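Kindly go through one protein, given below as sequence and tokens. The question is how this chain folds according to its tokens.

***
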Amino acid sequence: MATVEIEIRPREQFRAFLTTTSRWSIIVAHRRAGKTVACIQKLLAAALTCTKTRPRFAYLAPYLKQAKTVAWDYLRDYATKIPGATIHEGELRADFPNGAQIRLYGADNPDALRGIYLDGCVMDEAADMSARIFPEIIRPALSDRGGWCVWIGTPKGMNSFFELWEQAKDDPEWLALMLRASETGLIPEGELKSARRFMTDDQYAQEYECSFQAAVAGAYYGSAMEAADKEGRIVERLYDPALPVNTAWDLGVGDDTAIWFYQNAGMDIRLVDYYAANGFGLDHYARILDEKRGPNGKPYRYGSHLLPHDVQVRVLGGGEIARTRRQTLEGLGIPVTVVPKWSLEDGINAARRILPRCWFDRDLTADGIKALRQYRRAYDDNRQVFLDRPLHDWSSHAADAFRYLAIGVAEPMSAGYSMPSGPTNEWVV
């Protein structure tokens, strides 16, 4: 046992976090508050004092490149001051004399996290990660060691990070810390006034005052989803057993496959269910469709299954003759309707046009709703402008599937079809 003193000066605003014994913590903090440094300090203290065998700690950001940019310099600089510590630059990992490790990961490669165990984890910019990362990957990794987790970030709309904050702030088992720039004193008042002149009210409220209500910058469907909420079109128990259920898919290659389940009721489109997963073959999704049931306990009665044009691309596997995914799906009992190949811009516009007609099941489509709220344009940090393309992140798959749904709904109408009257969703000439 050795005593090592290193110069770490925590900011007073983070003292409650650095000294808490709570297993779960969430920090909602304004830009440049120092949350990344505080979390690296937390990880170092935990790694050096953990008495378990071979302790393991993780710093997780939405992208591995992002984790390296925001956290690696701090971890490396602190760790090099500890006698006997070893830095592995290529693996973004620091090893310590007691056998502990701290490693940086990206949520864009969730498979790198599967199968590991953790004694503690930091989830940075959690609003930009899939809501499934924690329950499916991180939480199991913490189980046998009784590990802890902290979520940190700045608000980006009313998504899963917002819901976590709402859950945590009144729970005595959590440490919930919100640091607003107007209250912390960490940024000079003159600098805040200057920032206000260069930012919209929404931007300033989100980045400096930790507002979850501020609109997500560059969001394609943010205002439409807000309208759906205000107009009462996000409700419980939306499914109608008298109507067929249609599906719209985005087929993932190495990432999520997303499926919207919807019913046509007159001119209304009812989004009654949503499912997404990765790492599975098409037989998995066929089984999910078979297992889906309404609140009456009866299985869904399916109508159309809308898929993008790449469902017709031939794929090789297992030494068999190349087959298209369409052939595979139809062999599994799922008749495929291929949607027309529209431009991305036209597809997004089609989605915008149908959103005022859409109703959402609050519970069964919760992940899809979060994704539609979060789906946004990519941003060029160098030129400080939004690009004419979406940011590809966890929200893309749900948004792409919804775009195919919109194209599939719009195409029959543009081809001279009309909706019949009465409780049916069949298209007629």
The longest helix spans residues 396-414. The CA atoms of residues 159 and 370 lie 5 Å apart.
